[in-house]
């Protein structure tokens, strides 16, 4: 006779956050398929939908206390598809197919940049300063390319003659992800706290501007955010160096160095005690 295991001891995965992650993964996959069929506007919109799902799954997991190692790994895999492979293939099919080797190399640099960015983020979760991102976050980089494609389709641009410039932008965006530039993470904002009434009006105005011309506003906003990293880093380079110096001063001394210093002090005391 088989004994049923208690419900608490059964293995499984949390449904709601992983369902949102799956939705984001589906949106990224759909973006690739839509770009192969020439539906570039749908492809760009799908990438933005994947961004929304990516923002919701982590918050939902924290709100419902359903965080898990599986969810974190699954989220990284989905991000690689939605914000690494999908944007590069969408922009490649849109503008880079006719410029030869440079086109697919620029797209590949973006893919490898997204992969390295996600790997570095996963290894620095517990040690990095939460106020900043080191390098451009992959969703923001994907939004720059998706916004450009959406903008081009909206205004009926012929992207083929501008393929070299689109390839350069793709290359730069990929390199920004693996750079050491600092980007604000907005995690210091107290989203649960109270704000002045004027703040609500500003938020409403932002939504109105996005609704008036989504591709222009989204591309412009994320392009400015991508430029903010180099500008903010160069502007505060002295403060950053001072922070690094203070961090080195506060770091614990290596145990081998402590042992050697202690031995040197003991030898010095023993020599002084000799007649």
UniProtKB/TrEMBL annotation:
Q: Which GO terms describe its molecular function?
A: CDP-diacylglycerol-serine O-phosphatidyltransferase activity
Q: Which residues cross the membrane?
A: 12-33, 102-119, 131-150, 162-183, 195-212, 218-237
Topology relative to the membrane, per the entry? Multi-pass membrane protein
Residue ranges for the region (Disordered) are 244-275
- Has the keyword Transmembrane been applied to this entry? yes
* One GO term describing the cellular component: endomembrane system
Give the location in the cell.
Endomembrane system
Q: Does the keyword Membrane apply?
A: yes
Q: Which family does it belong to?
A: Belongs to the CDP-alcohol phosphatidyltransferase class-I family.
* Official protein name in the record: CDP-diacylglycerol--serine O-phosphatidyltransferase
